[in-house]
Amino acid sequence: MTWALVFKLIHVLIAIAFVTGLIGRGVLLRRARRAARVEDARLLADAAEPFEQMAIQGSTFILPAGLLAAWAEGYAFAGLTTGWILASTVILLTMVPLVVLVFVPRGRVFDRAMEEALRAGTWTNSLRAAFDDRAVALARRYEVVGVSIILFLMVLKPF
Question: Would you say 124 and 117 are in contact if contact means Cβ atoms under 8 Å apart?
Fold first, then answer.
């Protein structure tokens, strides 16, 4: 087994964890939004946390692992002169600002709204608004579309 294959395997395993995290988080949070009781919504939101961590860790390590795999494969400049690798890198990097601008600040709002609703023992308007946050929904859709395009580029290597 060559180093190139080892790095490629690591990159693919990170990608699997990343995609699993995005899907798992999305499924559980959608179910939490539809829960009848706020306590059930909290349990489902808590269950989404390991998937959130998979998405966070995956997004953190996917680019270095991919560039390392490209370098080990012999691509010039870690593959950034190859169209599909450059396009994938750019798409992934456009997702980074979503963390700072949307996910972290809106996550804090969500946490406060959830605690308030739990103290009240019922769904509150602020918790409904936090679950229905349009910026978060658009950012998550962008993530899914971006990751889907990257997977397409990784598999088919069209240019």
Answer: yes
Q: DSSP assignment of 44-108, as one string? A: HHHHHHHHHHHHHHHHHHHHHHHHHHHHHHT-GGGGTTSHHHHHHHHHHHHHHHHIIIIIHHHHH
One-letter amino acid identity for 142?
Y
Annotated domain spans of the chain: 3-156
Inter-residue contact 131 to 106 (CB < 8 Å) = no
Determine contact, residues 44/32, Cβ cutoff 8 Å.
Answer: yes
- CB contact at 8 A, 75 and 67: no
- When pLDDT is averaged across residues 124-152 and rounded to a whole number, the result is 97
Specify the long-range contacts of residues 116-120, CB closer than 8 Å, at least 24 apart: 117/38, 117/41, 118/38, 118/39, 118/42, 120/38
The tokens of 135 are what? 């910026």
Residues 90-118: pLDDT tens digits? 999 999 999 999 999 999 999 999 999 99
Mean pLDDT score, 68-77: 93
What are the structure tokens assigned to 137, written together?
């929904």
